[in-house]
Specification:
Layout: E1 2-6, H1 10-21, E2 25-30, H2 33-38, E3 42-47, E4 50-55, E5 57-60, E6 69-72, H3 79-86, E7 95-99, H4 105-112, E8 117-123, E9 126-131, E10 134-139, E11 143-147, H5 155-160, E12 168-169, H6 173-193, H7 205-224, H8 234-244, H9 251-257, H10 268-277, H11 283-295
Parallel strand pairs: 1-2, 1-6, 2-5, 3-10, 6-7, 7-8, 11-12
Antiparallel strand pairs: 3-4, 8-11, 9-10
Helix pairs in contact: 6-7, 6-8, 6-9, 6-11, 10-11
The structure holds ketopantoate (KPL).
Domain Ketopantoate reductase N-terminal: 3-149
GO molecular function, one term: NADP binding
EC number: 1.1.1.169
Length: 297
């Protein structure tokens, strides 16, 4: 299969590596001419000290080449515009897989393009860049994908799932996205506001109390929507993840501290929007939403 990847960040290139290793053809669609000029025609990935180089074509969205399989790994706030930038290159048989934090853009894509086959996923894989297009694999996680649209079949999963790219097929991907959203609501905005590592949320009474209140509200909204989160309380789950990733800076803490736009609108913003729709008060989440809006782009 030929896959176009929109979003050549860490997850995009991690997937490029997996797709190439499993026999697919890959083309990167880069954001602008500067990025294309910066790209030498290859990227490298280091996994367990072993470096692999891949020569991969790159192009701009404005090219005419048809897009049959599209992987979108941009930040959540950029994914709708990213899709629209190549929409004229797609057809009714195009298949799209979105892999990003947050919720909203995935459902929007399905609503706005009812003939499209749309998949969404959630991953705990980790990778980071040591320099542009030089990727270091940080940890092997789990990737769950599921179909969001009426269109399509399990064929896409079967084509992608292999030893080089092990995936889990989800029949209820919305619940999976909600679980990730719930954890992100609990950890990301607070780490950005307190400018701390994930583990440092657990060390102070005020941070723990804020996290507990956020978790309680998220559980109320999820339950009103009949979404089952975890076997245990969300606070317990979020605590475990904050502890496990204790030394990490969350993606939102990094975005805020580096002056980049954040994913707050598709994380806490989405939660608050759903709460309003269901007539539920979520003051702690609303407060963190307002606070992040006031300090970020
Ligand atoms: O997904 C994350 C993120 O930073 O976006 C968590 C789970 C909080 C880990 O840092």
């Amino acid at each position: 299969m030929h896959w176009h990847i929109l979003g050549a960040g860490a997850i995009g290139l991690l997937w490029a590596d997996k797709l190439i290793r499993s026999g697919h053809q890959v083309t990167l669609i880069l954001r602008n001419q500067d990025k294309l000029d910066q790209y030498s025609g290859e990227f490298s990935i280091t996994d367990d000290g072993q470096e692999t180089r891949h020569k991969v074509d790159a192009q701009l969205a404005s090219e005419a080449e048809p897009v049959s399989n599209l992987l979108i790994t941009t930040k959540s706030f950029a994914s709708t515009a990213a899709f629209n930038s190549v929409k004229s290159r797609t057809s009714d048989s195009t298949r799209v897989l979105l892999l990003h934090n947050g919720m909203g853009p995935q459902q929007q894509l399905v609503e706005e393009n009812p003939t499209l086959e749309v998949w969404a996923g959630s991953t705990t894989d980790g990778a980071y860049f040591s320099a542009p297009f030089i990727l270091i694999r940080a940890g092997k996680g789990e990737t769950r994908i599921g179909r969001l649209s009426q269109q399509g079949s399990e064929q896409l999963f079967n084509e992608l799932n292999c030893d080089q790219n092990p995936l889990l097929l989800e029949t209820d991907i919305i619940s999976v996205l909600w679980r990730k959203l719930a954890i992100n609501c609990a950890i990301n905005p607070l780490t950005a506001l307190f400018n701390c590592r994930n583990g440092e949320l657990l060390k102070y009474d005020d941070r723990r109390a804020a996290m507990a209140q956020i978790c309680k509200e998220v559980e109320q909204v999820a339950s009103a929507l009949n979404i089952t989160l975890f076997d245990c309380k969300l606070m317990e789950q979020a605590w475990n993840i904050a502890e496990l990733t204790g030394q990490n800076h969350s993606s939102m803490q990094q975005d805020v501290s580096q002056g980049r736009p954040t994913e707050i609108e598709t994380i806490t913003g989405y939660l608050c929007q759903e709460a309003e729709r269901m007539g539920i008060n979520v003051p702690a989440n609303q407060m963190t939403l307002d606070a992040i809006r006031s300090i970020s782009l």
